[in-house]
Design goal:
Blueprint (H helix, E strand, L loop, with lengths): L9 E3 L6 E3 L4 H5 L3 H19 L5 E5 L2 E3 L1 H7 L3 E5 L3 E3 L13 H9 L1 H10 L3 E2 H6 L5 E3 L7 H13 L4 H14 L4 H15 L3 H11 L10
Parallel strand pairs: 1-3, 2-4, 3-5, 4-6, 5-8
Antiparallel strand pairs: 6-7
C-alpha cells in the first residue's frame, strides 16, 4: 500500500460482525514465556508504527468491539468512525498488563493526558457516543441492520478525500504528524519544507488553473 501510487485512502474494517478487533489472544499469550511476549509485543508495536506511517490518510471503521490492541490499531489510523453501539477501551490493566502497541502514547495525543490516564488506569470500556464526546472518534453513527454503519460512514468520508490533490494531502499528513512531535517553531519549519515540496507539482498548477477557469480540478498526484 505504501508504494502503490493509486491508493488515495486506506479504510480499516472487520468482516466479523460486531467486532472491529478484540486485541491479542490472551490464551495464546499465556503459553508464551517472557522473552516471547516481549518479541510479540515489539512486532505488534512495529506493525502499528507501519500503519501510522502510511503516507495516505487512514480511517478506522469501528463497527463493534475495539479492545486493547484493537483500539491501538484504530489509534494508529488518522481518522476514526464508530457505530454508537461500538465498545472501545484500553483494557490491559484489567488483565495485569499495560498498553504496549502505542496506546500509552497515541491515546493522550488524541484525547488529552487526563482522559487518557483515566481510561488506561481504569481499563474502562466506552461506547461510540462517549468516544465522540471526548474526541476519540471523528464521527459516530447509529448501527444499521447489516452491522456496517461505521464502514459506510468511513467510505463517505474517504470519498470526500478522494477528489483532493493526493500529494498535497500526503504532505499535509506529514506536516501534521511531524509537527505534533516538536515545538511550534520547529513545526512551522516542517510545514514550510512540506509546502516547498508541493510548490512545483503539476497538481498545484492544475488547482490554480481550475480556479481561474471556474471548473473542477483534475488532479493526477504529481
Amino acid at each position: 500500500l505504501r508504494f502503490d501510487e493509486k491508493v488515495r485512502v486506506v479504510v480499516f474494517r472487520s468482516e466479523v460482525k460486531g467486532v472491529f478487533c478484540a486485541g491479542a489472544d490472551l490464551k495464546e499469550r499465556a503459553e508464551m514465556d517472557d522473552a516471547e511476549v516481549g518479541h510479540f509485543v515489539k512486532r505488534l508495536r512495529n506493525l502499528m508504527d507501519e500503519i501510522a506511517a502510511l503516507p495516505v490518510p487512514t480511517i478506522a471503521a469501528i463497527d463493534g468491539y475495539a479492545l486493547g490492541g484493537g483500539l491501538e490499531l484504530a489509534l494508529a489510523c488518522d481518522l476514526r468512525v464508530a457505530a454508537s453501539s461500538a465498545k472501545m477501551g484500553l483494557i490491559e490493566t484489567t488483565r495485569g498488563l499495560l498498553p504496549g502497541a502505542g496506546g500509552t502514547q497515541r491515546l493522550p495525543r488524541c484525547v488529552g493526558i487526563g482522559l487518557a490516564k483515566e481510561l488506561i488506569f481504569t481499563g474502562r470500556q466506552i461506547d461510540g457516543q462517549q468516544a465522540a464526546s471526548m474526541g476519540l472518534v471523528n464521527h459516530t453513527v447509529p448501527q444499521n441492520n447489516e452491522g456496517d454503519a461505521a464502514y459506510q460512514r468511513a467510505l463517505t468520508l474517504a470519498k470526500e478525500i478522494l477528489p483532493q490533490a493526493p500529494f498535497a494531502v500526503k504532505m499535509g499528513k506529514l506536516a501534521i504528524n511531524r509537527g505534533m512531535e516538536v515545538d511550534i517553531a520547529s513545526g512551522m519549519a516542517i510545514e514550510g519544507m512540506c509546502y516547498a515540496q508541493n510548490i512545483p507539482t503539476r497538481d498545484r498548477q492544475e488547482g490554480m488553473a481550475a480556479f481561474r477557469e471556474k471548473r473542477p480540478p483534475q488532479f493526477i498526484g504529481k
